[in-house]
Amino acid sequence: MERKQQLSRVLTNLFFALFSYLLIASPTCARDRIELREEARQMFYHAYDNYMQYAFPHDELKPLSRTYTDSLAELGNLNHEHLPEFYNGTALTLVESLSSLAVLGNETEFVKGVAWLGDNLSFDIDVRVNLFECNIRLLGGLISAHLLASESFGGLIQGGYKNQLLQLADDLGQRLLPAFDTPTGIPYAWINLKNGVMIDETLETSTSGCGSLILEMGALSRLTGNPHYEDAALKALRKLWSMRSSLDLMGTTLNVATGKWIEHSSGIGAGVDSFYEYLLKAHILFGREEYWDMFQPAYVAVQQYFRHGPWYHEADMRTGKATYWQLTSLQAFWPAVQVLIGDVAAANATHREFFSVWEKYGVMPERYLLDRGTIHPTERYYPLRPELAESTFYLYQATKDPWYLDVGEKLLTSLNKLTRVDGGYASVRDVTTMELEDHQHSFFLSETCKYLYLLFDDTFLSDTNYVFNTEGHPLPVLRSWQQWFSLESSKDNTSTKREADSRRNASWSSAMESQMCPNLRSVFTNRSWKVESVCHVLDEQDDHTCDSRASCGVDAATCRKRTCSSSGYCGLWEKA
Ligand SMILES: *[C@@H]1O[C@H](CO)[C@@H](O)[C@H](O)[C@H]1NC(C)=O
Ligand SMILES: *[C@@H]1O[C@H](CO)[C@@H](O)[C@H](O)[C@H]1NC(C)=O
Ligand SMILES: *[C@@H]1O[C@H](CO)[C@@H](O)[C@H](O)[C@H]1NC(C)=O
Ligand SMILES: *[C@@H]1O[C@H](CO)[C@@H](O)[C@H](O)[C@H]1NC(C)=O
Ligand SMILES: *[C@@H]1O[C@H](CO)[C@@H](O)[C@H](O)[C@H]1NC(C)=O
Ligand SMILES: *[C@@H]1O[C@H](CO)[C@@H](O)[C@H](O)[C@H]1NC(C)=O
Ligand SMILES: *[C@@H]1O[C@H](CO)[C@@H](O)[C@H](O)[C@H]1NC(C)=O
Fold it and tell me: What is the annotated signal peptide range for this record (predicted)?
């Protein structure tokens, strides 16, 4: 009798399990995801194998002519000034591929690449490079791969790893430091790896160029114990932040000697983008309140002055008046930042509009005129950029809405249909004619392929939290890094003290946990909640009165749960 009951209970449970399985993850869906992951994997290997065959150890592959280009000195160098006469490359695409090989689980190839670089790579070369590009691609790639390789972190190389990549990164870091020797502490945009800053070097740099160095420099300081890297990047960042307007807006370009703005119009695209990204990610990676104290007003100002519905235009930092009504393809990273702070509804809305532009042309045009709804007359290219895939990945992580998998599938399909050639993947010169260009950028391997793969298989993320640098290189979020103090000679110790307090109490070690809305999941599954933006949960009573914490909402700006004060009002009260 009893046994029969048990059996029927088991069967009922089984039925429900099966039913919810069918409901939540139908088998077709599950199979599709594996197929799509394999398609993303093949995309990476087609790009990688062709690079290794036709271009390695030069910088990047020319997929149409199946040869190479030593393009490091050309990155960010629109007019191709001061190009080196004798320069044979730094295996840039290999450095950029290592963390992707780790994500794809190819240890053998990863180990081979590390060995080659340790033996053969040297930065003692007479080549003038862009500080920002060199930092995010080479330094970021080396640091990330070092962390993934070493036993104390990722452990991809068991035994026999002798910190070769860290030595390379340290050497490269030393070569970049002289760029920071300016009256403002804001670094030159260009430096020669062998000879330092050129005489008569340009004094102009961009906000992203000098304001997105802190992740790599901070990580390098923690790994080497040498505080100079982080100190230099932080000093530059503080100076830059002090140059914001009364509206908390930044300009796009500035003079590193005078600390005066050159271009006052700015937005969230080219020349500014990763400045915002790095403030937030530095807060997550290093746990310093100071970064959040910069990010939060900067983010609010962006939403206030640049946003028009789901779109973002540019505005003058002094007046907040709109200047250019243009979508630029780099802006497509913004929803990913919004997901990290829990503003998922806004991210979703913007992502949808950007994807509609992708669908209109087949790939993303570099510029699109919002006021006319047409493509820009000259900037019609698509150099295999990752930003839309990146945002798609973040939004899928946050929502698990299968719609984003469909988007990922469409991105894969159009990339394969329009840009795949026998010798790799080629950039698009003009999205209206789909004429190709003989260039496979290294970021296609470090970002575009990686984010698409992670969209369909996030096993890599299962036991560690990472922040990705702006080139897609993962850096693990480590508690120990958040207890490390920079030795910089800061007179103002108030934020350091507050930081020490909150660090002592910090119980999180996760990018997602720390800034994502604590109740994100239930917000999505619980329609009865009054949700304005995903991060913002309204208090139960319109007049904010409460009798317990349960009837208070979540603060939109900080993503913190509001508490009920002793006098009966919801707010961000400190714990009594
Ligand atoms: C670059 O390679 C060429 C051909 O192998 C070689 O002759 C030259 O010395 C190399 N230049 C440098 C700077 O390594
Ligand atoms: C790793 O990459 C190499 C080079 O593309 C390839 O030959 C090998 O099959 C890959 N291994 C795995 C396990 O995917
Ligand atoms: C370093 O480069 C040389 C010359 O190309 C090559 O013979 C050697 O195998 C490389 N080292 C490693 C560890 O791959
Ligand atoms: C995203 O936008 C679509 C269309 O407006 C909507 O149906 C969906 O619920 C939104 N998802 C989220 C997570 O906001
Ligand atoms: C921090 O600043 C206060 C006043 O500005 C000073 O009294 C105190 O000694 C400082 N603490 C440290 C650790 O430097
Ligand atoms: C940290 O926790 C202690 C007790 O555990 C508390 O007294 C203190 O106020 C907390 N500090 C912050 C900044 O939350
Ligand atoms: C939905 O929200 C209400 C109000 O906070 C709560 O009481 C309820 O338990 C939630 N339901 C689910 C399924 O989370």
Answer: 1-30
